[in-house]
Amino acid sequence: MRVINFNPGPAGLPLPALERARDELIDFQGSGMSVMEHSHRGKEYEAVHDETISLLTELLGIPDTHQVLFLTGGASQQFAQVPMNFLHPGTSADYLMTGVWSEKAYDEARIVGQARIAATTVGPDKRYVRVPGQGELQLDPRAAYVHLTSNNTLYGTQWHTWPEVGSVPLIADMSSDFMWKPTDVSRFAFLYAGAQKNLGPSGVLIAVARKDFIAQGRRDIPKIFRYSLHAENNSLYNTPPTLAIYLCRNVLAWMKEQGGLAGMEARNRQKGELLYRSLDANAGFYRAPVERESRSFMNVVFHLPTPELDATFVAEAKKAGMVGLKGHRISGGIRASLYNAVSVDDVRALVSFLEEFARKKG
Ligand SMILES: *Cc1c(COP(=O)(O)O)cnc(C)c1O
């Protein structure tokens, strides 16, 4: 029996993608071995690799100016690799600070070179409850790039309109909301997302890079860290995480069947609206700290009147078949992660549980 999984990452995967993996595991397409036992240079794996890239290209509408890369080391490695590639000596990069992950990205950039905070919404209590408005950005028109975190997994905030950054290249960490809805990737010089939140298992990171931008990346860094090297080799310079890419293929095929990114957006909006509406209707008991315009559709953060009640809520939800609801240790409370694989019915189950809980304990 499968549980209802609200884990923040690694997160639940769509059942059809797992069932397909189960059916193909031992004997992949009559080859007598599993996909992970194949050479990454053989035709069987190559077909999976190329299909994953073409599904990404089709679903996201990636233009010819851009290219998909499969990388490893997660988003955390990109925090270092982005400045290694794009922070040329004598230049500085702008960071938009909206949570723990943007802080980590900024800290890594400062080790590599010059970085400045072009906006921050950190509160006096060190927490973040919103993303900045355009008027709050103090952008350097000569910056090497502007970096933002599109969805703040811990605090439950999300950018709903992209900032205007003029001609400065825009870079985004989209780890926790990649492909949650149609996205104009041409706005970004480089975007990246660890797969384990919204797309697949851990072990692979997907980047969408503007070709001319990565071609101008620094050459005075080890080859393995150069995005241009991975681009020139179609992400096959070294052995890629073949099984993780294969599982992403299964999830992408499922997303396509569900109506692509327009289908994902419709489901995701319905899910978020159901949950926030219920929290607002029970605002005497549940407190959702994030400002309305910055509310995330991916990670919904809320608190009960006491930490003891938070813990009881999590324990009783588990008995009711719902897991992954405990808030991050930094932000506390409850966090329900409503990634693509979570269904509208899953959220309906959570909503009836939390309304019943408020009636009993409120
Ligand atoms: C989870 C997460 C990361 C870290 O990903 P790793 O794969 O652990 O490096 C970075 N950024 C965001 C927005 C995340 O949600």
Automatic annotation (TrEMBL):
Pyridoxal 5'-phosphate binds at A75, S76, W101, T153, D173, Q196, N238, T239. Transmembrane segments: none annotated. Its main location: cytoplasm. Its cofactor is pyridoxal 5'-phosphate. GO terms for molecular function: O-phospho-L-serine:2-oxoglutarate aminotransferase activity; pyridoxal phosphate binding. Catalyzes the reversible conversion of 3-phosphohydroxypyruvate to phosphoserine and of 3-hydroxy-2-oxo-4-phosphonooxybutanoate to phosphohydroxythreonine. This is Phosphoserine aminotransferase. The gene is serC.
